[in-house]
Amino acid sequence: MTAFVDPRARLRFWGLAGATFLAFTTVTATALLAVVLRLYGLADHQIGVVLAVYGAPVVMGNLLAGPVIARLGVARVIRLALAIMLLAYLSFHVTAASFVGACLSRFLQGVGFGLFLPTAMVYAKAQLTPARMTYYFGIFSAMVPLPNVIGPALADLYLGRGDPGLFFVVTAIPLLAGALLGGAVVGEARSTPETGGGRYADLLADRRLWMPFVGVFTVGSVFGFVSSFMALFLLGEGVAVVYFFSTFTVCFFGGRVLAVPFFERTPKWAAVMVALILMCAGFLLLIVPGGTTPTLVVAGGIVFGLGYTVAYPQLSVWVAEYFAPTARGRPIGLFNAFFNAGIYLTPLWTGVSMAAIGLRGPMLILCAASLSVAAMLAVYGRRFALAGAPAVARGDGAPPGG
Fold first, then answer.
1. In angstroms, rounded to a whole number, what is the distance separating the alpha carbons of residues 211 and 319?
2. Contacts of 112 (CB under 8 A, 6+ apart)
3. What does DSSP assign to residue 128?
4. What pLDDT is recorded for position 228?
5. Helical H runs in 7-150?
6. Residue 230's closest CA among 290, 301, 291?
7. Which of 26, 189, 312, 395 is deepest in the core (most CB within 10 A)?
């Protein structure tokens, strides 16, 4: 069973995967951004604003990706986005001591990330045949979070032994290498006109896309709690955060290799339904009556990690299958906008409600949302999946709703 569309596609795919890993090794160093900005003299309340600025431009970049791809082509946008990410990160070297300047650097960083991810996803999928797309795309998309294993640790090691004044220059080296590698690899892509995939209004009106968009917003919302408040919740329960995050990380990456292939032949709606139930079960294990224990937290991390690792690639391929490779720019950009909107909205409403309902309340709300979408998939998933034949099967770029 051939995984790649032509003999050169293997090199293009793995080259871009390597470039993505290198680029996000630098991006994950921003886990220490608050520490570095404090060394540069920014106040804590200013640092909070700088960190929060990131969300809006990420979503904006996601939405801009489709139109920009349609105008410039996938290869040029990947090179442009990597250049923006590199410029934004290096700009902290001269702006970190300024509140306004740091906000501008962080904003530009968000735009670069927002442009890069959906464009890289479009490019990676264009190298794959439908038969193995879910498996290999799952591996590719893991290149974004995988650097969290080494990026922050390397940055912390340098910060403890090197010159803090050169932090952004030194930690930008992997991103520079990734930009050079990515630029060289995507330059080998075949020149194919990019049609963009239709207007966003048409995509939102396309009933085939409603369930995957609702699904990925829900997945993003649940993960938004993990990335923002899970550590605080566990510490409040007297449990070390390593019990959840270590098991979650192992199961996330192990699942991309083992669990995702298991679901390759499963209907996308059914795989996502199971994944959402697992994510909900992972949360429920943490808030069972009687108290949170390390054993329950480990179990919750395992179950949640397996659910999350299956959900995202299944949903992304579900959307991509309805469009020819040259028409995936806007659909994938909008898909990622829903995902990131969920991630960045959850901390907002959780923070507002936390004083009244604590952190268990938002976890129960997110569980209810996950189960509700899973129930919708059980009832309507097959109907939405059969609403129109995927474009990859028809071999065209039919407009939404066709």
1. 10
2. 61, 81, 82, 83, 84, 85, 87, 88
3. B
4. 79
5. 9-27, 33-39, 44-52, 55-72, 74-95, 99-126, 133-141
6. 301
7. 26
For residue 379, the tally of other CB atoms under 10 A from its CB is: 9
Q: Do the Cβ atoms of 87 and 108 come closer than 8 Å?
A: yes
**C-alpha span between 154 and 127 (Å, rounded):** 32
Handedness of CA 346, 347, 352, 354 (dihedral sign): positive
Q: Can you tell me whether residue 194 is helix, strand or coil?
A: coil
Which tokens go with 175? 């991103």
Q: What are phi and psi of 19, to 5 degrees?
A: -65, -40
Report the SS3 class of residue 173: helix
User: In which residue are the tokens 């909107």 written?
Assistant: 341
Q: What residue type is assigned to position 225 of the chain?
A: F
Residue 189 and residue 122 in contact, taking contact as beta carbons nearer than 8 Å = no
The helix (H) or strand (E) run that includes residue 309 is: helix 294-320
| Residue with the two structure tokens 């670069």 | 112
pLDDT of residue 187: 66
Q: Is 313 exposed, middle or buried (0-12, 13-18, 19+ CB in 10 A)?
A: buried
Residue with token string 């034949």: 389
User: Which stretches of the chain score pLDDT less than 50?
Assistant: 188-193, 195-196, 389-402
How much is the pLDDT for 363? 96
- In the structure encoding, which two tokens stand for residue 281, read together? 């079960």
* Type of residue numbered 262: F
CA dihedral 180, 183, 188, 189 (to 10 degrees): 150
What pLDDT does 71 receive? 86
Residue 368: CB partners within 8 Å, gap ≥ 6?
none
How far apart are alpha carbons 113 and 60 in whole angstroms? 10
User: Of 147, 145, 142, 143, which Cα lies nearest the Cα of 310?
Assistant: 142
Amino acid at 44: D
Q: Which of 389, 268, 393, 392 has the alpha carbon at shortest distance from 327?
A: 392
Helices (H), 127-187: 133-141, 151-161, 167-170, 173-186
Q: Which two tokens stand for residue 133?
A: 């797309």
- C-alpha to C-alpha distance for 123 and 302, rounded to whole angstroms: 31
